[in-house]
Write a structure and sequence with these properties.
Blueprint: H1 5-25, H2 42-57, H3 77-98, E1 107-110, E2 113-116, H4 117-141, H5 154-159
Antiparallel strand pairs: 1-2
Helix pairs in contact: 1-3, 1-4, 2-3, 2-4
């Protein structure tokens, strides 16, 4: 949980940069990679991450700009990457200009529950990280080079002339 805006903003800077790396590595053809027959596609997951930033955070009274939660998934990877970047930046702008540390303890009705704003920020972060993990698997299945997130990816180990760890 976050106790100060700086705690969240520092964590968001790190995590949103890693999410952006994945978004930037997508290709138009990779967007159709399905999770399973009839399941979400890589493009749908990436778009969902971009859509959730304004959808969730605007329920707290912020005015985060971004794509509508019901907008159809584009068939253009650059559009998805740009939408995420814009929403992530807008979130930072909104929080830094409209909230204080004390705001984190105030509550909102969120998805049938009452959450503090700190809890909402934690949920947004966890949501993004969860779907980002799904994206990396689908990216590999789509034949994309997966950028390292919490350390080097397989291809990055190999570019260092090292064997990737098996564990």
């Amino acid at each position: 949980m976050y106790h100060t805006l700086e705690e969240f903003l520092s964590h968001w800077a790190f995590e949103s940069a890693d999410t952006q790396k994945l978004m930037d590595a997508l290709t138009d053809t990779s967007l159709t990679q399905p999770m399973c027959p009839g399941g979400r596609t890589l493009g749908r997951l990436a778009w969902h991450i971009a859509q959730t930033v304004p959808e969730m955070m605007n329920q707290t009274g912020l005015a985060v700009t971004g794509v509508d939660e019901h907008a159809p998934v584009p068939d253009n990877a650059v559009e998805i990457a740009h939408a995420y970047a814009a929403a992530a930046a807008s979130l930072v702008q909104e929080i830094t200009t409209r909230w204080t540390d004390a705001t984190l303890a105030t509550t909102d009705e969120m998805y049938g529950f009452t959450w503090t704003k700190a809890m909402t920020l934690a949920a947004l972060m966890s949501h993004q990280i969860h779907h980002r993990g799904q994206m990396t698997v689908l990216m590999r299945q789509a034949g994309l080079r997966v950028p390292g997130v919490y350390g080097p990816a397989k291809e990055e180990w190999e570019s260092f002339g090292m064997e990737p760890p098996l564990v």
